[in-house]
UniProtKB/TrEMBL annotation:
Protein name, as recorded: F-box protein
Main location: nucleus
Domain F-box: 1-44
Gene Ontology, cellular component aspect: cytoplasm; nucleus; SCF ubiquitin ligase complex
Span list, region Disordered: 105-125
SMART domains xrefs: FBOX
UniProt-annotated location(s): Nucleus
Function: Acts as a component of a SCF E3 ubiquitin ligase complexes.
GO BP, one annotated term: SCF-dependent proteasomal ubiquitin-dependent protein catabolic process
Organism classification: Eukaryota, Viridiplantae, Streptophyta, Embryophyta, Tracheophyta
Pathway membership, UniProt: Protein modification; protein ubiquitination
Domain of life (superkingdom): Eukaryota
Signal peptide (residue range): none
Native source species: Panicum virgatum
Gene3D superfamilies: 1.20.1280.50
Amino acid sequence: MDWLPGELCLKIFQLLDHQSLASAPQVCRKWRALTSDDELWRKLFSDRWGTDAAAFYAPEGSKSWKDVFVVQDRCDRYGLGVRIIREGKDYYLIYQGEIQRYLGSRQDTDGDGGKDAPRQDADDDEQRQIANRILFFLGDLEAACADAKRVKA
């Protein structure tokens, strides 16, 4: 597709679903530039959620339509409340579809030719770190809620 004009490539990209479109930038720099086209993501958003929703959720400031699409998709998948999610091997804390905090990552546990014990210890340590981050966040959240209740009263 290197020899195709950019406008024709954009027409082809408009036929893709959001998952394929999100993977396309990994192919080459030209595709990365073309798939970051704001109009392409606006159309994808409008096709999925309608023009009224597109008008309501239109990006503000430095946000792009791709950013708005990703947040709305996450809201559809996980809801609007506070959630701890895993995307790939990474854990995030989200609220209303927006990532609030990165919690950590699980690494591959590929066989090391008999060196499983050190790798298992590293995996256990990493999981403990993720659990600690989650617990610290929950403690912060509980303290913030208690402060908010005192202010209301």
